[in-house]
Design brief:
alpha+beta, Uridine Diphospho-n-acetylenolpyruvylglucosamine Reductase, domain 3, Alpha-Beta Plaits, seven-stranded antiparallel sheet, binds flavin-adenine dinucleotide, binds (2R)-2-hydroxypentanedioic acid, binds zinc ion, Oxid_FAD_bind_N
């Protein structure tokens, strides 16, 4: 892709406007004026080290009004922008492609209010997920979303990507939990839809467009969200299984026997566990190797009762030969360490170099076949091995089994066009043939912009473009990405 000449080049005059408006410490400038400030590179690169932009200006507004003034100026002067939260996104959506101005939300990080009776939390978009969850913990509540990047991702970023995470199975998607949104449109209009109502059937639910909108129609500045009661009894079981058929049986049993206390059902294959082990050197919780592992979490109100249920479940599935081996966490430290074998996968896979990531919804019976087919394809192409010349270290599958969401990851020593050619469009075609989705939770961003047609019809893409044009007629919001 080429830089779109419709967008203006940044000048000293623009920079002066912004720094006068936002004040000291709220801009990172590089190469436009003489006074280059901090290191701008962290804002130009993504978490995977796969995408790299060339912004010369990062703005950190401190209020909704400031976001409004910044966007209005950008819109009037045809300056393209990229909204940026914790920059933990996995599809290249949060970094510029060329010289777009980064609008980083980290200074808007306050908790605005919390209602202890209803569980309604209102936060600034730049509030870090873990900070909000720790705050809620003290009140006996839990944030309805949890994911491995919780220490750095923003709630605004979570909403903008409609992140799914580890407990969607229990608490549902942000499309249901988010009660209200405050956002700024490119022309500076503040959309105050920060409702705290659970029910509100008065016309189109416009906030839904911002949820998963990936920063293409406006900037989210505030979020109101319904938080569930925190369960005081949390238990975790870690299972080893001999086939994907048995994983499915175990899932059915877990739903049946653990029903209302089931809060996560995660899948990991042996390849993913092997690579985690090679990085952490930690001792795996189960002896011997099993092709599949599952992590089951329960959250309920009665520790004894929940323990008994989980123990009975484990006894049953082992007796029936569904599960080959299993352990139950004995305390909070063990719970954390068992979760580490699942949550730690993305970080460990990055150890060798680049990872090709695919985040897919697939009908559950065929969920793992994609990993096998992909491994076979990469093997046939002679691209996998232990030698320095073999680009691929491993083809692994893991993910949110409870939501039919597979993460297919191909860990490489370095991003390599030969590997990419084997994977794309193969993976997308494979998924499309089975009426799956090419993005279950990470979004499209830059990574999948050319592939939206594998999951959406022409009619739907046309409607999306019309909405984009309505909200952002000048096209300044996160250009070159999926829309
Ligand atoms: P960023 O990465 O900064 O931005 C993501 C997108 O949102 C960009 O397009 C950006 O322009 C836009 N955006 C950000 N803030 C705003 C705003 N205020 N207004 C408008 N647009 C905005 N995702 C899952 O769904 N489930 C997981 O389990 C999961 N686990 C992860 C584990 C790890 C270790 C990592 C690194 C990532 C994981 N992710 C997961 C990816 C996930 O998308 C992000 O972690 C998170 O939701 C993005 O939040 P962020 O603040 O980092 O947003
Ligand atoms: C997870 O579930 C995240 O761990 C990241 O969604 C998945 O890195 C990935 O592909
Ligand atoms: Zn995930």
């Amino acid at each position: 892709i080429k830089r779109d000449p419709r967008y203006a080049q940044l000048t000293e005059e623009h920079v002066k406007f912004f720094t006068d408006l936002l004040g000291e410490g709220s801009a990172v400038i590089d190469g436009v004026t003489k006074d280059a400030t901090d290191d701008i590179e962290p804002f130009n690169g993504d978490w995977m080290r796969k995408y790299k932009g060339h912004t010369k200006l990062v703005l950190k507004p401190g209020s909704t009004e400031e976001v409004s003034k910044v966007l209005k100026y950008c819109n009037d002067h045809m300056l393209a922008v990229v909204p940026q939260g914790g920059n933990s996104g996995l599809v290249g959506g949060s970094v510029p492609v060329f010289d777009e101005i980064v609008i980083n939300m980290s200074r808007m990080n306050e908790i605005r209010s919390f209602d202890e009776v209803s569980g309604t939390l209102v936060v600034d978009a730049g509030c870090i997920l873990e900070v909000a969850d720790n705050y809620l913990k003290e009140k006996g509540y839990i944030f309805p979303l949890d994911l491995g990047a919780k220490g750095s991702c923003h709630i605004g970023g979570n909403v903008a990507t409609n992140a799914g995470g580890l407990r969607l199975l229990r608490y549902g998607s942000l499309h249901g939990n988010v009660l209200g949104i405050e956002a700024v449109l490119p022309d500076g209009t503040i959309v105050d839809d920060l409702s705290k109502l659970r029910k509100n059937n008065t016309g189109y639910d416009l906030k839904q467009l911002f949820i998963g909108g990936e920063g293409t129609i406006g900037i989210i500045t505030g979020v109101s969200i319904l938080c569930p009661q925190r369960s005081n009894a949390v238990n975790v079981a870690f299972l080893g299984l001999e086939s994907f058929e048995k994983v499915q049986q175990a899932f059915r049993e877990a739903k049946g026997q653990l029903s209302e206390i089931l809060s996560a059902f995660e899948l990991m294959d042996s390849y993913s566990q092997d690579l985690v082990h090679r990085v952490t050197k930690n001792k795996h919780p189960l002896e011997g190797e099993h092709p599949f592992y599952c992590l089951i979490e329960t959250s309920g109100s009665n520790s004894e009762h929940d323990n008994e249920k989980l123990e009975k479940f484990l006894e049953y599935v082992m007796e029936k030969g569904i599960v080959a081996d299993g352990v139950l966490a004995q305390d909070a430290t063990q719970i954390k360490s068992l979760w580490g074998w699942r949550e730690g996968i993305p970080e460990c896979l990055g150890h060798w170099g680049g990872v090709y990531k695919y985040d897919l919804s697939i009908p559950i019976s065929e969920l793992y076949s994609l990993v096998e087919d992909t491994r076979e394809k990469i093997t046939k192409a002679g691209l996998i091995g232990d030698g320095d010349k073999d680009p691929v270290v491993g083809v692994v599958g893991y993910g949110h089994m409870g939501d039919s969401n597979l993460h297919l990851n191909v860990a490489t020593r370095t991003f390599d066009k030969r590997v990419e050619k084997e994977l794309e469009p193969f993976v997308y075609e494979w998924v499309s043939k089975r009426n799956g989705s090419i993005s279950a939770e990470h979004g499209l961003g830059l990574a999948k912009k050319n592939y939206i047609g594998y999951s959406r019809s022409e009619t739907m893409i046309k409607l999306m473009k019309q909405i984009k044009n309505l909200y952002d007629p000048n096209g300044i919001m996160n250009p070159y990405k999926y829309i």
